[in-house]
Specification:
heterotrimer, A alpha/beta (258), B alpha/beta (299), C alpha+beta (375), A: 258 residues, alpha/beta, 4-stranded antiparallel β-sheet, globular, B: 299 residues, 3-stranded antiparallel β-sheet, 25% helix
Chain lengths: 258, 299, 375
Amino acid sequence: MTDQPLLIADGLSKNYGTRIGCRDVSLEVYPGEVLAVVGESGSGKSTLLGLLSTELEPSAGRVAYRLRDGRVADLASLGAAEKRLLMRTDWGFVRQNPADGLRMAVSAGGNVGERLMAVGWRHYGNIRDEALDWLAKVEIAGDRIDDDPRAFSGGMRQRLQIARNLVTRPRLVFMDEPTGGLDVSVQARLLDLIRGLVAELGLAVIIVTHDLAVARLLSHRMVVMRHGRVIETGITDQVLDDPREPYTQLLVSSVLAA
Amino acid sequence: MNAHAVGGMPEITYNFAYLDEQTKRMIRRAILKAIAVPGYQVPFAAREMPMPYGWGTGGVQVTAAVLGPDDVLKVIDQGADDTTNAVAIRGFFEKTARVATTTSAREATVIQTRHRIPETPLSENQILIYQVPIPEPLRFLEPRETETRQLHALAEYGLMHVKLYEDIARHGHIATTYAYPVEVAGRYVMDPSPIPKFDNPKLDNCPALQLFGAGREKRIYAIPPYTKVRSLDFEDHPFKVQRFAKPCALCAATGVYLDEVILDDKGGRMFVCSDTDYCNGRQEAGHRGEMAAPVGEGA
Amino acid sequence: MYVAAKGGEKAIRNAHALLAKRRRGNRNLPSISLAQIAQQLTLAVDRVMAEGSLYDVELAALAVKQARGDLIEAIFLIRAFRTTLPRFGYAQALDTAEMLVRRRVSATYKDLPGGQLLGPTFDYTHRLLDTSLGVADQANEVDDQAGESKTADDAAAPVSMPRVTDLLGQEGLIEGAPADDGSEPFDITRAPVSYPVDRSTRLQTLARGDEGYLLALGYSTQRGYGRSHPFVGEIRFGDVEVIFDAPELGFEVSLGTVQVTECQSVNQFKGTATTAPQFTRGYGLVFGQCERKALSMALVERALRWEELGEERGAPAQDEEFVLSHCDNVQATGFVEHLKLPHYVDFQAELDLVRRMRAEHEESRRAADMKEAAE
C-alpha cells in the first residue's frame, strides 16, 4: 500500500424520488486495499457501489480517481471514451448474478478474451493462450474453454466472471455480493481464490456484502452502512471485535448468535 | 405528386423518379455526408415508397435521388437481371423516370443491386447502389441503437471480434459467409449488405462510387471511389473467400460466384454463374461450359 | 442442356392480372362502390386513415377496396401516396375541448358537465350474430330516426363539454398539460428518429402505430408488466375543426373538420421530493372512431414516461426503443414478408459452408476411428 489514495469519494448522496439511496458518504480506497461495505439490504450499500463505479449519477458529491499516469481525475469530468477505456482496462466489476456480468451465449474463452480484443489484440492464438492461462488461475479446466457459461455451475460462472474482469490486470475491482446465492462450501473455495488473486495481483477491491464473515476473511478495512449513511468505519478486525455503534454491535452479535 | 379531381376521383401524376425534389435534396445531402465520412451510417428521413420495406426501398430512394434523365440503369437481384424483384424495380424507374435501362454492367451508369457485386469490374463513371436490410453490423451482438451508436463513436469494435473468435473456436474457421463485416478507410466497421463474402475484395479500392441505402432503418452510407476496405479477421486466421470446385457449366468461367441449380430429384445438380449478364457475355464471346447448348442453337 | 429460368416480367404481369380477377370476384355480383365502403365499413376506413396518417375518407375506401380488405395493405397504399404530398405547413393544434362530440364517456365520474354521451358503440351490445343483416337490402333495416337526436345529425347539441383532465387540473390534482412552447413538433415523416425521443415524436409514432401491437402492449401493462393503475378519465369522439394560419393572408383559415377519438388516462403517481402527489396522464389521439387504439395508445404512452416520473423500469411496454421501433406495421410487414424474396446467393454460401464442415467432421471422425483401430 502507498499513502496516495486510489479513489476518493466526497459527500456522495443519491435520492430516488422521496426515498434516499445514500447520504453524504465520503471514503478513500488505497492501492492494494480491500474495503468492505456492509449493511442490511436497503442500507444503501449497492447504491454506493453504483455511485463509486459511475454507473449511477450522484444527486450531490463527487468521485475522484488516480489514473495510471498519476493524474487525479474527477470521474464526472471524464469523457465517455475515457470512462469506457477506464472501465475495460483499469477497472473490473464482479456482479452478484454472473449472468449480468458474463455473455451467457459466448464461450468461456470468448468471455475472457473480449476485453483483450477490445484493447486491440488481434491474434487468435495469443488470445486463446491468455484465456487458457486465466481459466487455470481461476481453476476452470482448459477443456471447458469452448463451452458457454450456461453449462457451468454457479461457482464456476462466478470464477469465470472474475477471470473475465482480471484479464486486463485492472487496479480496482468492484464486487457486489460475489458469493451471494452460492452453497457454503462453494463460497469458501471462491473466497480463498479471491483472496489469493487479490494478494498476488495487488488489487484494490471495494466489496459490498451483507455477510460479515466475507468481510472478515477478505477485507482490510470496512464501513458499516445504515439508512443510506456510513455509521462506522475502521480496520476490519477492530470493527468486528470491538464495535462502537450499537447498531454494529447488534449486527455482529446477530451473526454470532446464528 | 399532383391530384386533379376528375369525375369525382383524383387523377394522380408523379414527379421524375417518383420522389419530389425536396425529398431528393434531403437524400442527396445525406449521401454527401456519407461520402465525406466513409462507412458511417447517416440517418435520413426515409420516405414510404410504393414497394414494401425490406424489398429495396432504401436502394430505390438512393437511386431516385442520384438518377438523371441521361443515366442508364441496371437492376440486379442475386446477381441476375431477370429475378422478379429486379424486374419490378427496373419497371418502376422505366415508368416514373423513363430512363434507359440495360442488363449490361459495362453500359450502365447506375446499378442498383441486392446481394451481389457484378463480376465485370466497375469504372469511375459508375455508381453501385446496394439495398440494405440491416445496416448495423453490431445489431445482432447488441440490439440497442443507443449502445451501438456509442460503440461506433468510440470505435469500440472488440465485440465484433468476439463473434469472429467464437466462429473459429467452434468451427475452426470464421463461419460468416455473407454480410461479412469490413473496416472502411481505417475507421468505421460497416455491414456491406448481405453480399457473399466472395464479393468483399471487390469493395476495396473500387473505382466506382458505392452507396448503401436502408429504407426501413433510415440509414445511408457510402464507400467513396478508391477507398481502402478491409474485411475483419485475425492475424493468424486471415480473411479468405470461398472457392468453387468447378467452372460455370454454361460459360466455363472460373473465379466467379456460382449458383447451384438442382436438375432432377436424383441429386443431379449443376453450377452456373450467379451474374447472368457476365455469363451471357462470355457465352456470346464463344466460351462454352460442359452443359451449354452447342453453338448455333442459342441458349 | 440447361436454360436458366427467365420470364420474370411475364410472370409478374400474369400474377397481377390474376390478382385483379380475384379482387373482382364473381362478376355476376355488383362491384362494391367506394361510397358503400365509406358508409358501411366505416371503422375499417377509419383505421386505414389513422395508421395511414392521411385523413381522406374516399382514398381510404379506395385503398380498402384495392387491398381486397387487407387493412395493413390498404394502410401501406395510403402511406405510399401520402409520402408524395407537398407539405404546406402545420395546422394549429386541434382544440378537442371545442369538439362537436358524438360520443363521450368518462369512467372516473358518474356525471360531469356536458354529461355522458353513449353515441354509436359496440359496448353493451350482445355479441350475437344478427342474421337480419345477412338479408340483402331490407328497405327499413333500421328506423331512420332511431337513436338520432332531434337535430338532423347524430351530434349532440353544442353544450359545453370540458375535458375531464381540465376539471382535475383546476384542483391541481393532475399534472398540467405540457405547455405549448410554440416550437414546431418533430416530424417523424420528414426527419429520421434518434433515440431517446421527445414527446411529440413518441405520440406521432404511437398515433400511426399498429392497433393490435399497441393493444397487446397496453394489455401487458394491466397485467403487471409496467403497471400504472389507469382510469379512463375520458374518451371522446367527434368532429374537430382544423385551423391553419396562412402567413400570406395574415389570418386564420378553417380547413374543415376531421373526426378524431381522444383518450386521456388518469394514472397514479406518488410524487417526488420536489412535487406533491398528483395524478399523471397518458394520451391517445387517433383519426376516426378508433377507441381501442386511442385507449391502448394512452396506456403505452403513460408506460413510456417512467423515466421522467422517476419510476422503475423493467417491463417491455416501458422500453422506448423497443416499443417505438417496432410499432409501425408497414415497416414490420415489409421486412417480415421480404423473407419471400430470393436469397439464393446467401443460401449458396451457407450451403457450401455446411458441406465443408460436414466433410471436415466426417474426416476427423474417420481419423479417430483409424487411430482407435490401430491401438
